[in-house]
């Protein structure tokens, strides 16, 4: 049920203004507290969409819009860690400024929300945007999910109409997904994925959560980090994604350092993992423990409810720098469309 909180509006907007000022001035020490306060406020005073959209839209430079347009819907509950752009019409997907903003946000934050100002049941915006990222920013084009599905995959509950012959993928169930990387079982996991919301969960389920890998790896001992970087794990390929009948698993590492030496990239999906050595097994146990700990930290984990990602929104995520999870779906009509692109190796450290 949605309730309107009249005299709360100003308080919330003031709170958001403080958060945004602090973001702008990079005085971020207070941010976790402010986010917590804002989230608490949101929890205790639930807003309807239109109220949320009045917020900072008119004068916030925090939210660059598609070059030729100014208006921008804002969801104050989405933490500032998730940058937010508007795409008022389809032409944005080919405007160099818009495409550059998307590319930069993905590089800096590893995540980005885009609000579409139009209905796009055929995902033309995402198709054109990814082609533009390919053309101007060196992203490789998407991997095809199957001969019939092409680039896109429908994430929605289904009991009969599966997208691969005779197999129901877990994305076709209403089940919860624990923390994972998409395609962790691929030799070349995709660097990015996007989810376009065609129908959000209207009954309070299907919250998408993301966890920052660098923050997670800070919780691990140096020994564990080193072990996770060795290719000492067997990663099983789920039945519905076996391409060659004789290849049912790959061998690989779980953690990767970036150019600055920070352990900021991961591939992980626990149910597919078998450690092959004693040290790999110990490291995996420590990682699982850290996951539970980090889950509780507000600055490392973001929960995106249906209010944060309503119909017509798109979330783009760096698949290696953020783990993601979702809770159980409550609405049989929930419908997201997924695309994954820029598949590149995930090298392990030998010896
Ligand atoms: O349903 C969601 O929100 C996420 C789906 C997902 O993680 C996946 O399909 O891999
Ligand atoms: Fe996923």
From TrEMBL:
InterPro entries associated with the record: TauD-like_sf, TauD/TfdA-like
Keywords: Oxidoreductase
A Pfam family reported for this protein in Swiss-Prot or TrEMBL: TauD
UniProt keyword Oxidoreductase, yes or no: yes
Database matches in SUPFAM superfamilies: Clavaminate synthase-like
Annotated protein name in UniProt: TauD/TfdA-like domain-containing protein
Keyword Oxidoreductase annotated: yes
GO MF annotation, one: oxidoreductase activity
Annotated TauD/TfdA-like domain residues: 155-339
Top-level lineage group: Eukaryota
